[in-house]
Amino acid sequence: MKKETLENKRMEEIISLCKRRGFIFQGSEIYGGLGGVYDYGHYGSLLKNNIRDSWTKNMIDAREDVYELDSAIFMQPTAWIASGHVGNFDDPLIECRRCHNRMRADTVLESFGIVADKMPIDFINSELNKLKAEKKLKCTSCGQTDIADAKKFSLMIKSNFGSPTDELKEENVVYLRPETCGGIYLQYKNTIDSLHPKLPFGIAQVGKAFRNEIAARQFVFRTREFEQMEMQYFISKKDTEEKYNMWKDTRMKWYLENGIPQEKLRWYKHEKLAHYASEAYDVEYNFTCFGGFKEVEGIHARGDWDLSQHSKFSGVDLSYFDEETKERFIPHIVETSVGLGRLVLMFLDYAYTEDELGGEKRVYLKFNPKIAPVKIAVFPLLKNKPILVEKAREVYKNLKNEFGSVMFDDNGNIGKRYRRQDEIGTPYCVTVDFETIEKDGMVTVRDRDTGTQERIKIESLSEYFNKKF
Ligand code: ATP
Q1: What is the pTM of this model?
Q2: Which of 206, 211, 214, 333 to mutate to test the pocket of ligand 1 (most atoms within 8 A of CB)?
Q3: Which residue out of 91, 342, 349 has the highest number of ligand 1 atoms within 8 Å of its CB and is therefore the one to mutate?
Q4: At what angle do helices 340-351 and 3-20 cross, to 10 degrees?
Q5: Nearest to 225 by CA among 75, 54, 40
């Protein structure tokens, strides 16, 4: 089988499992779907919440120097002019003249080994022309070679906030935010004035962002509506290197602690930096479903650009007065920025496993228990025996009180339940049977990854799972 086919197959398998087991659905599916928009079902929501909570715990709760914010999606439109988004937040678009398939020119060039990310449109067109001359540039959909020149395509999505839809004039356009950090810069001053933090300190938030992506065909890796988890760390310029490295280490450890092994991760250093930036690295993960490394998170040293721009455009002084040194300056920023949906896909990609158990092929998701949507499932061996159901319900209730995401499952026979829980990625299943009641007060605990089963006393389950988790 060709490499490409393997990758496509894995992506299809993940998409199909996500639909079959209620993780992720195509948005507006009954109307034929809406491109680049996905909805999270029960298990997808639980998984996403666990990833978000792990990030929040690590980035906010476990620290003294990072505060939380939940800013609005809509912002005063001038803020997006100040940030450069209205003028420059675009991707180079190329279109096939025959089938009108739209492609991102920088991604196409990258497939030929040409680094084109954030490069000027002239550079992109001259590289495309070289490929055209060699008849190498082909439509990714129909394969023909008549491709139009690249043009800029704005990623900003406009709304008619406060004005009728048929009067959407430039002067009353309001944007759906393309990133969450904008709200952090705008509330930097209120945070300082209300919480009085000393530098260095950070503001973090999780929220929705919207981008009119040219080619949103990579499941939840790239969507037009998505959630971001971003943190802006305000520092004095002289501390940039030290704090930048501290955040690089902190973020890499987070991936390892959530079960992604080091060999599946690497750093990608940006060679072409924005004029204000001094350092930019991406965390890349080696996706089986794409057949290679792709960006999951960006860590950027952004200088004093953001606060300076907002200070200039709003007319409000956003400088900081350092009581110790008696200096006044605009703080510099180190940012960490990651997409929650992209992380969901990373964890699904890593967890997806096929093997043979008891002579049968099976699929299971080997999630780290920390992020598994369900940690324990409890079954009565037979669902029509009240004595088993009652005991199983009692075990379930106690475990749920202690471990939270515990599920009661009595659908189908035991084999079917194991298969379902394997595909949901539940690390442990607990079965109450006749021996539990009549003989020893013990239940069977089955391990997802090995399929091995142990008999454990009901009273010892709490201790047993506390050790496991
Ligand atoms: P790309 O080059 O993939 O378009 P980017 O470099 O523009 O991404 P940033 O603006 O740095 O991305 O956004 C930070 C993070 O937000 C990304 O690392 C990614 O995890 C997430 N992200 C960005 N765009 C999307 C999207 N359309 N769908 C899902 N996640 C996204």
Answers
A1: 0.94
A2: 211
A3: 342
A4: 110
A5: 40
Question: What does residue 349 show for φ and ψ, rounded to 5 degrees?
Answer: -60, -45
* pLDDT score at 276: 86
Q: Whose CA is nearest to atom 21 of ligand 1?
A: 339
- Write out the H or E segment, with its range, that includes residue 121: helix 121-133
Does residue 182 have its Cβ closer than 6 Å to ligand 1?
Answer: no
d(CA 365, CA 352): 5
Domain architecture of the chain: domains with CATH: 46-79+175-349 (3.30.930.10), 93-154 (no CATH), 374-468 (3.40.50.800)
Looking at every residue in the chain, the average pLDDT score rounds to 94
State the pLDDT at residue 168: 66
Asked which of 166-175, 387-396, 404-413 is least confident by mean pLDDT, the reply is: 166-175
Residue 115 has pLDDT above 90, yes or no: no
End-to-end CA distance of the chain: 39
Distance 116 CA to ligand 1 centre (A): 16
Segment 54-58 mean pLDDT: 98
> Is the distance from CB of 387 to CB of 355 less than 8 angstroms?
no
C-alpha torsion 372→374→378→382, nearest 10: -110
Residue 356 pairs in a beta bridge with: 361
The model's confidence at residue 195, banded by pLDDT at 50, 70 and 90, is very high
Residue 93 contacts residue 324 (beta carbons within 8 Å): no
Output the CA–CA distances (angstroms, integers) from residue 120 to 83, 96, 103, 194, 266, in the order listed: 18, 21, 17, 42, 27
Does the Cβ of 228 fall within 6 Å of ligand 1? yes
**Model pLDDT, residue 158:** 92
Q: In whole angstroms, what is the distance from residue 437 CA to residue 429 CA?
A: 18
Strand partners, 430: 378, 445
- Å from CA of 339 to ligand 1 middle: 6
